[in-house]
Amino acid sequence: EMKTDLNLLLECLKYQMDCPLSQKEALITIYSICQQNSEASEYFREIGGLMFINDLAKSSVHCIVKEAALFTLGIIIESNVYCQQTLCTSALFEDLILFLIKKDSGVNLKRMSVYVILVLVSNNKNGQTYVRDTGCISLLLQLFRTTLSTSEKNPSGENTDPCYQLWSSVCSTLCACVNNPQNEDNQNICCSVFPYAKEWLESCTEPEIVRPICSFLGLTVANNSYVQKYFVSIGGLDALAKVLLELMHDSCLSHSSMKLAVVVTKTLDACIANNPAVGVVLAKYHTVSELLKLLSNETLNTGEKISIILTIGHCTEVCEENQCELLQNNGLPLMIQVLTESQDEELIKAATFVLQNCKQMTEQLSLKLYDNSLSVNNTEELDVQVRKRCLQDYWKKAKEILHRINSIEKEHDEKGVQGEILVDESSVANSEALKSHEVNPADPEMHTERTDNKVCCPQLTSKLDNQVLAPSVTSAARKDGTVNSMDAASTRQTEQRNIPWPVNELQTDSVPQSHSVNGKAACGKNQLHFLVTVFLPHLDQHSFCSEKTEKVRSTSATSSSHKMADLRCLGCTAGGLSLNSRTFTRMLQSCLHRCEHHRVILEAEERYRTELRKVAAADTSRSA
């Protein structure tokens, strides 16, 4: 039935040459049958109908017949590729040029001619070549520049103005001349009208004007670095950025403005895709932040989101200003959200592209900030680095000391250190010690020396999570029977009893090698100096007993012996016993009436243990 109808319609065209209205009606019926029907178009070509209509368009003297014939040719060419190949000749392009340049040709006839050119070059490399070689593309560019008047650059309503429709058709045809397949020669020719396009963008933001121009610009600069550079050089990128800024600053972003903003975004991306360095132009317009705002619009479809994210990626690929703007406007969390929530593969690739830029930019910015900080205050930065290294060295040395101390105590444990404290034996040992170190109480220097030599400092250890902590200070006091000797042994008040000691003050000098087994083997002056300066830098052997000395001074001479007996504790009477840190600490903790001297030591050790536990816990968490 379709074939029969086409045969009859073709006969009607041939025998109605004197009736243009009948021919027009026959042509309308033919294109309605062949429209989007490749089989019908192919059959009409086989019966000679395609060439007959081509000849009719050239030979008819009636304008309405010419227009209808050209439109029917366009429909058939668009529906069937074989028809396109049959009519794609330089002769047809030349005929179409004549229709366009004739002064008596109306706007509709020109528009139908442009439509035929459009379908001839669409997806057809040969057609793109013919349109250039015949000079047809130059004529199209002239129409692009001159078709619209000043008043027509601000259309409104349905855009039924014939001149605007012709201009819109020219824009679409120029897009087909440079794209699909990409034709660099035609792109290089079409860039000659960029200054006009830029001028229109600066003077008008109507969608009817901006949308066709953006489509033409985007396809003309696509994958052509030469054309992209030229467009940027004339300020075209600035014009596009301003249009986007104006659209986004609309108080209430309408749906049409949002869609137009996406079109402008795609054009921006095409302009910088092959030259990411020119993206610096967009930094002064804060384009990246505007794109992030646009991306947060919930009405966007997946394709639009992909276009926006790719544009952000190209903006931030090499431009540090845009990179900083992306980070400052929470672009990184937004990209991660898109990556985790989306199921579209292309969208995930686009988000990954931006995240890769974020990784590179973070590394580059970090290095740059580090270099800048060194240039501004190089000495201070180096000091910080030195302190960090020193702290690591101190920790290493401290661990070595602790290991050695722990090994020594373990040896003493193996020799059978007694855990019980015998008060009677300690009293005898202390009495012998006093006899062996008897001095003149009136000689303060000699008494001070005796005090220093008699102070014993068994080393204490503490274990937390199988780690040996640093030692604290303990000592064994001597037994003294006179008030004068006590006065000479301690001469000043302690003022900084509760000051904590820094870990980085640990030193390795004068490390104790053994414990006191009896009174004669008690720790000497060097060991006491080491432990006091390391762990209690503000408390020495004199200040330990300061408060006790003050109490003694406040008593009368007649009751001195009785008061001294009251001030002595288990730690004071255990000087002759073989003790280590654990047994000595347990002994002090079990004593209900500790002297001021050993109370200070026990409190210092507890503070030390607490601080070391905190440091060990923090170190463990950082290692994890």
UniProtKB/TrEMBL annotation:
GO terms classed as biological process: homologous chromosome pairing at meiosis; meiotic attachment of telomere to nuclear envelope
InterPro entries: ARM-like (IPR011989), ARM-type_fold (IPR016024), TERB1 (IPR042359)
Residues spanning the signal sequence: none
Designated name of the protein: TERB1 protein
Naturally occurring in which organism (per UniProt): Callaeas wilsoni
Upper lineage: Eukaryota, Metazoa, Chordata, Craniata, Vertebrata
